[in-house]
Amino acid sequence: MSEPVRSCDRRGFMRGAGQLSLVASGAGLLGLPAQAAQPTSLENEKAEEPLAEATINALEGAYGVHPKQRRNHTKDVGALGIFTGNPEVQRWSKSRLFSGEATHVVGRFSIAGGDPKVKDSDRSPRGLALEFRIPDGSLHHMTMLNTPMFFAQVPQTFLDKFIALAVDPTTGKADPARFAAFNASHPDTRGQVKFLTDNNPPRSYSEEAYFGIHTFFVANKAGQRQKVKFHFEPRDEIHRLTDQQMNSLPDHFLEAALSERLRRGPAEWDLILTLGEPQDEEINPTLLWPSNRPKIKAGRLRLHSSASSEQAGSSKINFDPLMLSDGFEASSDPILLFRSPSYAVSHGRRLQEA
């Protein structure tokens, strides 16, 4: 196992891979005053670092170490495309994402868990991560799941899950009783478990919606702030695997299905911003907002090609969801804030293995 990377080393690694660290990105990317942005990110990273290290260790205990690969959402395929924002959204957010200019995007579709050979029919979340390369040189990241809610209210639940999935060296498998006990003692998992039970996996990455799951704030040039959630709604019709297909399809079909779809033309999604009310939940990503909240079509994502993550360039990107353009701010959701240091630990270990 690689030696844990210290906080300062991880930031150096991220810069070397073409990423802006939370420190180097400055207050503008967080939409906060300069006096507040840097200490807040550093203090959060320092406070969460032991738990982040423990979580990545637990992922390695559950799935093994696959050198140079991510510890979670390991199986993936890269994609390239363009995002064009709706300028009318500047009423709520001054982000250059909504300038109307074409923004180049590097994307990554994935399957949850640390097994690079997991079956594509596995009943687990699918992920979509995007890096928007804004024409002014700044970056904006979005990391999403195809479930509208997360399974953990607090980081400890995330850690506990992968401890429960640890492989017993004598059997080579996780202990089902231990994982059942985890689910019974963590009621915050129930919403996502029900969604995954009720909804079979997608038959193609292009035929699925992807949800930001966390609450963010947007701010316009006048300084007015608005609570939002976002998701990408596919222009293709949503199709899920039938029960028969779940058992009959080959283990690996999603990458080929995406490639075949893109040969027919770009796959498209509408970015939908949902406007929250003051009473709507901000810090618990396992809870959904009322369905009647206003929704705004904020832009169009067009992915025109796919390739391995190495060829697409997504393999070197640390898709940190706190990499935000000016006009976006993070909420104080503890899971959202935890993702940055835990991603940095995983990213640092991968770079040490390169």
Automatic annotation (TrEMBL):
Pfam families: Catalase. Residues 1-36 form the signal peptide. GO terms for molecular function: peroxidase activity. SUPFAM superfamilies: Heme-dependent catalase-like (SSF56634). Its EC number is 1.11.1.-. Its cofactor is heme. Keywords: Heme, Iron, Metal-binding, Oxidoreductase, Peroxidase, Signal. Residues 40-354 form the Catalase core domain. InterPro entries: Catalase (IPR018028), Catalase_core (IPR011614), Catalase_sf (IPR020835), Catalase_SrpA-type_pred (IPR024168), TAT_signal (IPR006311). SMART domains: Catalase. PANTHER family: CATALASE. Belongs to the catalase family. Has an organic peroxide-dependent peroxidase activity. This is Catalase-related peroxidase.
